[in-house]
Amino acid sequence: MCATVLVPVVVVAVTGIVRNPTSDADLVLPLVAVVAAVAVAAYASIRRIRRTATRTTPGTGAAAVVPLDELDRRAQRLLVLTDDCVRTSREELGAAEALSGSEAVRLSAEALEFAAAELARAFLVRQRLDDGEGRRRVLLEEILARCEAAGLRLDAAAAGFDQIRALERTVPQALEHTETRFRELTARVAEADGTLAGLREGYALTAYLPVAGHDEEAKDRLVLATACLNRTRQALDGGGTEDAVAALRTAEAAVDQAVLLLDGVTRHAADLSAAARELPAAVTAAEADLAEARAEPDTGTARADLHGRISHGESVVAAVREEADGGGSGPKGERDAREQNDPLDALRRIEQVATGLDRALHRVPDGSRALARLQRALLVARVAVRAASDHVTTHRGAVHCEARTRLAEAERRLHAAESTETPPVPAPADALADAREADALARRARQLAERDVRAYGTPYGEGLWTGGAVLGGILLDAPHRTAGRPGHPGDGGPASYGGPGTRGRRDGGELFRPAPPQSPLPDETRAP
Predict the structure, then answer these.
(1) How close are the terminal C-alpha atoms of the chain, in Å?
(2) What residue spans of 204-240 are helical by DSSP H?
(3) Three-state secondary-structure class, residue 353
(4) What CA–CA distance (Å, rounded) separates 488 from 73?
(5) Residue 395: how many other CB atoms lie within 10 Å
C-alpha cells in the first residue's frame, strides 16, 4: 500500500524537474528521500507477504511448519526407502551388465553412483543427528533433500535403463542366463551345508553365528526362484510377456540373494582361518607390549590405572593362548576349547588390551607395530561390516533406519581406515581408531537389524508370498491395495532399478496376489 501511494509522488517530482531544469539541484535531496521511502515500503511489504505465507495460525490457509517429530518420521521412512532403491538398483544393474556389458549401462551406473553418494551423505547427517550434533530441523531437512535428489535421479534414469535392458524383447536370453546361475547355486547348497558343519565342529557359536542360518535362507530364496522361473516359462508359452518379465525379475532377485548368502558362508570360513593364522603373532605382540608396560617406571607419566590394565591384559592373553593351544588334554578339554574358539573375537580382545595400555601410558601407536595392529583390526572390522551388510540386504523388508544408519557409518569409518594408499593418508593411530569404531558400529548395526527382524516376524503366506520374498525386499506391497481387498505384503510384484516413483513399475498383476478364498459349497451340493 505504501509503495503504491508513493509511486505517483515520484512521478510528479521527476516531471517537475523536467519542466524546471533550473531547480533540479534544489530537488535532488527530496527526490532521494522519496526513492528511499519507496524502497523501504516495498521491503516492508515483501516481509509482510512472507510472514503471511509461513504463518502457522490455524484457519489462515497458509502453509504450516511441520512438527519436528513428524519431520523425523518422514526422514527415517525416506532413508529406508532410498536405501532399498539403491540396493535393488545395484542388484539389477549387475544383471543388466552381465548381459549387455559395462559400457551399455554406463549412464545408469552413473545415476546409481550419484544416488549412492547422496544417500551416504544423508546417512552421515543422520548419524550426526543421532549423536546430538547440529540443529535438528536443519539436519532433518538436509536428509529429506538428499534422499529426494537420489530418488529423482534414479527415477529419471529408469526409462533409459529399461531401453538398454529391454526385458520385453530379451526375456528368453535373460531367462537362460538366470537358469544357468540357478543350477550352479543348487550345486553349492550342499557345499555350504558341509562348510557350516565344519564351522560348528571347529569353532564357538559366536564365531560362526553371523552365517549360521545362511544355508536355509539360501534354500528359501532358491524355492522362490524355482517357482518364478517356472512361471516365466508358462507366461512366455501363453504370450504373457508382461507377466514373464515380472516373474523373471523376481527370480533374478532371489538368485542374487542366494548368491550373497552362500558366498557369505564361504567367505566367513576363510576369514576365520585368516584370523586363526594371525592370532599367534598377535598374542606374542601383546605379551611384549605387557612386558614393556611392566618395565615402565612408576612416574607421573603413567596413569594410575596402569597396574589394573596390565593385570587385565595378562588374564586376557592367557585365556586367548589357552583357547588357541587347545585348552588342555582329553575329550572334555578339546570340547571346551572348541566351544570357546573364536579367533576373530580373540583378535578384538587383544586389540582392546593394547588400546588400554596406550591410554594408560599416554602413548600414540606408531611404526611397524602399529601397522601390524592395524592389519589385524581391519580384518576384524571387514568381517563385521560384511556380516551386517549382508544381513541388512537379505532382510531389508524389515530393517529400520537406525540399523542402516549405524551400518552406513561403519562402512564410512572402514573406508577411512583402509585409505592408506591415496592421500590424505591417515596416521596409524587414526586408522586404528577408525577400524575399531567400524567394528563396533557394524556389530551394533547387526544387533539392531536382528531386533527389527524378530519384531517383524516371519511373513509366510500363500503362493509366492513367502518369508524370503518379503523379508528380502524382493516383492513390494501393491500400491492398489484397498480395504475391500487388502491382499498381503509383497503382492505388488518385484522391485526393480529406479527410485521411489519407478521401482514398482513391473507390477505382476494377479501373478503375485493370493487367490481369493473360495466360498463354501451349500450342504446339498457338497461332494460326499
Answers:
(1) 89
(2) 205-208, 214-237
(3) helix
(4) 24
(5) 22
Task: Identify the CA nearest to 125 among candidates 112, 134, 115, 114.
Answer: 134
CA distances, 484 to each of 427, 480, 481, 511 (Å): 62, 11, 8, 19
Closest CA relative to residue 429, chosen from 440, 417, 442:
417
Q: What does the block give as the cell for 315?
A: 588374564
Query: Binning pLDDT at 50, 70 and 90, where does residue 145 land?
Result: very high
Radius of gyration of the chain, Cα coordinates, nearest whole angstrom: 32
Taking each helix axis as running N to C, give the angle between helix 136-165 and helix 106-130, from 0 to 180 degrees, rounded to the nearest 10: 160
In angstroms, what CA-CA distances link 189 with 148, 215, 225, 228, 281?
40, 7, 14, 19, 35
- Looking at residue 483, its pLDDT comes to 55
Mean pLDDT over 406-414 rounds to 98
Classify 445 as helix, strand or coil: helix
pLDDT digits (tens, 9 = 90+) for 327-340: 555 455 555 556 68
- Give the Cα separation of 475 and 496 in Å (integer): 10
The one-letter amino acid at 469: A
**Contact partners, residue 105, CB within 8 Å, separation at least 6:** 93, 96, 97, 161, 164
Cα 106 → chain centroid: 23
Report residue 472 as a C-alpha cell. 528380502
For residue 419, what pLDDT is reported?
Answer: 87
Per-residue three-class SS string for 285-296: HHHHHHHHHHHC
Cα–Cα distance for residue pair 224/256, rounded to 1 Å = 12
Angle at 217 (CA atoms; ends 211, 223), nearest 5 degrees? 155
